[in-house]
Design goal:
Blueprint lengths: L7 E3 L5 H12 L4 E3 L17 H16 L3 E10 L20 H15 L7 E2 L5 E16 L4 E14 L14 E3 L4 E2 L5 H7 L1 H14 L1
Parallel strand pairs: 1-2
Antiparallel strand pairs: 3-5, 4-5, 5-6, 6-7, 7-8
This protein binds 2'-deoxyinosine 5'-triphosphate and magnesium ion.
2'-deoxyinosine 5'-triphosphate binds next to strand 3.
Length: 214
């Protein structure tokens, strides 16, 4: 990752869960990660794009221009089939003012109970957990270099199902309600290593690193 001076990657995020995952991933490559927790005085970026990619580019460019160095940004979220793709780009603010992961998860279950009739016909896991809808996580990464004015971008996805009750205590965000069909495991039941290997962020990062090598 030659665009990253001094073996440090600046990630334009205020999400502690993302910081942990990037620190893990870049740590394996011998690089350190700093985030907006290390630059608390930068103005907030308004995430008003219509797509994950637009918001990701906006975060990377505004922070990179403020700092005068290359910056990586992540815009990500959950698309739920039974909710017509919601919450999508609104994932972080799904439960409105003062949204937290816990409130967003509660709102997700409330909305899904409405449209799936409480999961009457839903598929079930061995312990009776109902799978209420197909869903996917999306992650759009962008690296902006203010010296060249250029972006390097990638996207990653992981498909799964939304459970009617939480499982596991790893990860962050909507992970406790996300069942990964291919692994037969909840996302919050995975180690960082497992989540990086199959998750939307890990896949997007692998793709970004490939593009930077070319
Ligand atoms: O791996 C994940 N596992 C579970 N949930 C996830 C994941 N990745 C994103 N998500 C959820 C969290 C948040 O509700 C939204 C991201 O919103 P997003 O605007 O990209 O991030 P954010 O506002 O938390 O931090 P920031 O913009 O400073 O990077 O999707
Ligand atoms: Mg955000």
């Amino acid at each position: 990752m030659g665009m990253m001076p001094g073996g440090t990657v600046v990630v334009a995020t205020k999400n502690a869960g993302k910081v942990r995952e990037f620190a893990h991933a870049f740590g394996k490559l011998g690089m350190d990660v700093v985030s907006m927790f290390d630059y608390p005085n930068l103005p907030d970026v308004v995430e008003d794009g219509a797509t994950f990619a637009e918001n990701s580019r906006k975060k990377a460019r505004e922070v990179a221009e403020a700092l005068g160095m290359p910056v990586l940004a992540d815009d990500s979220g959950l698309e739920v089939a039974a909710l017509g793709g919601e919450p999508g780009v609104y994932s972080a603010r799904y439960s409105g003012e003062g949204a937290t992961d816990a409130r967003n998860n509660e709102k997700l279950l409330r909305e899904l109970a409405r449209v799936t009739n409480g999961g009457e016909t839903a598929a079930q896991l061995a312990d009776g957990t109902k799978l209420l809808s197909e869903a996917r996580f999306v992650c759009a990464l962008s690296l902006y270099d203010p010296a060249s004015g250029s972006f390097t971008e990638s996207e990653g996805f992981v498909s799964g199902s939304i459970m009617d009750r939480p499982r596991g205590d790893g990860g962050f965000g909507y992970d406790p309600l996300f069942w990964v069909d291919s692994e037969q495991k909840g996302m919050a039941e995975m180690t960082k290593e497992e989540k990086q290997a199959i998750g939307h962020r890990g896949r997007a990062l692998a793709d970004l690193l490939r593009k930077l090598e070319d």
